[in-house]
Amino acid sequence: MRIISLASTVLFLLSFSTFANAEQHDFEALKNKYYADHPGKGKYADLWEPIPIQQYWNPVTFYKPPQTLKAEVKAADCVTCHKGITPGWVHAWQDSTHANLDEIRNLSSSDSRHYKKAKLEEIEAGLQKRGVLKKGQKLSEVGCIDCHAGVGKKSMKHHVDLRMPDRAACGECHVQEFAEAEAEKAQKWPQDQWSEGHPSHAMDWKANVETGIWAGMSQREVAQGCDMCHYQQNKCDGCHTRHTFSAAEARKPEACATCHNGVDHNEFEGYMYSKHGVIYETSGKADWDFEVQLKDAITKGGYTAPTCAWCHFEFNGEFSHNLVRKVRWAFNPTPAIADNLDHPWFEERKVAWIGTCSNCHSPRFSKAWLDTADKGTIQGLEVEQEAKKIVQKLYDDGLMVGQKTNRPAPPAPEKDAPGAFFGLFWAKGNNPSFVDRTHAEMWEHDLIKHYKGLFHVNPGGFTYSEGWARLMRRYTEIQDANTRIREMDALKKQVKALSK
Prior knowledge:
Structural class: mainly alpha
């Protein structure tokens, strides 16, 4: 087992190094691979059609330039025109680093943004090497046309060339970050607990469009609520809000809150209600310097507690846009993970997490808490699995309410199953039944909140208000329903026998 683990680890590290060093690799090759890997509408493409708003979540596949302005425009025209049409865009851009490159060039070494000076030089050198800029030429600014038509463009046909920037568009300048983010696709699980590259931001659109109930729903305007978070594979503005694209903003926990909240991934609530989040709220917002480079946040930025970005970007002392290098339990706990936590692949990642936590805690404390979180997660998983057996047996025995008379099949491509994911988003007749729905909420909501609460150190999140107490409630409801259903079935059989 250890030989297999070491081999898979080496392959992963080789894959990562292939992606991660911008100086050693070709942007064009990265871009071509990005588009070649992109799933577009996914394997269920014949089951759904995009609605207009989806061109903004997946411009790679759906975006088409507006036809309201059929003219060739120059770079300066964008700001002149949009000051009157969409002044919010212009205001955000004018306050951004993109619009103020000379300010970056003139920063003193005492300024916490000084590292951006070297980053700008690196970007310009890369553009010069690719012939986008002439040798020795500097960027005057990164304007609208650079992002919406191509870096260095002087003019464009608005109705033909206008694009909604995708990951690759950002990667034209930010090659290093583009490469690191794409490196998430190289993740391989040792016993195939998840498919290659999953779960990650780099594969989240594919995970979205290849979910059966999402593709099968007729209510496309509701289904696209998933798209609004599952588009990080397509664009970078989920973290770096347009048109400021601020690194400082993306370093704050609130930047993660739009997507990482709610019943099946309440990381933001778990963090904010933890002692870490309380420290951030009470002192971090006022006293910490979010302009400082993330790797220097503790030593130079004044951080006295971790943030989402600090913990998840860090890996063995280095920081990158590959956020899955320490992933162990992934999106949700499963027996296939719980039963293999002693595998070297998982152990190595746990050691990496201990290293992360040890920047503020002792290694002994760090390990003690991670051991606690692992065992608490397994305890929650055991309850959910016990409930699953009860629900599965009811289904196998044909005893779900209405199962023999009023249980329509879910929309294709979903197949009927007890407690399945589709039951959270579709209902007809007695499908899902109360028992189905209860178990679906148990594994897809409560167990995940329990796990997230533990690992984000939010006591209410895994004990009383969420997590364990909710699991106990659902388990009680399922056992109660099982007793009633089986007693009624026995009574029906007795009545039938007597009637004969």
